[in-house]
Amino acid sequence: MPIRYKCRHCETEIGQLPLDSIDEHFLQKNDITVDEQELYIEHGASGDYTVQCICEECQSSLQKFPNYYALKKWIQ
Ligand SMILES: [Zn+2]
User: Fold this and answer.
1) InterPro entries from the entry (predicted)?
2) Helix runs in the chain, H state only
3) How far is the CA of 13 from the centre of ligand 1 (A)?
4) How many Cα atoms within 13 Å fall on the side-chain side of residue 56?
5) pLDDT in tens, the chain (76 residues)
6) Pairing of strands 3-7, 49-53
């Protein structure tokens, strides 16, 4: 079961990693540049993992229009 990286704003699948690449040092080893607060790992019922992060497109939109995304989050 792979780990899926998904944008939590537009739900675009950013990529996949094999599950054996996840361990307690997962975040450090992968040198993830996203702020820790922007990153969520969901452990699915079937043993799969979904890492919710932000794609480059949303990241740049977020920097340009932070108010728009804050609003959208509340509506959802
Ligand atoms: Zn996105």
Assistant:
1) Fin
2) 26-29, 56-64, 66-75
3) 9
4) 2
5) 678 889 988 999 988 877 665 555 555 555 555 555 456 778 888 878 888 888 999 889 888 887 765 666 554 5
6) parallel
Q: Please state, in angstroms and rounded to a whole number, the distance separating the CA atoms of residues 2 and 67.
A: 34
Q: Are 33 and 52 in contact (CB under 8 A)?
A: no
- What are residue 7's DSSP bridge partners? 53
Distance 76 CA to ligand 1 centre (A): 15
Write out the two tokens for 48: 């799969």
Q: How far is the CA of 18 from the centre of ligand 1 (A)?
A: 22
Q: How many whole angstroms from 55 Cα to the centroid of ligand 1?
A: 4
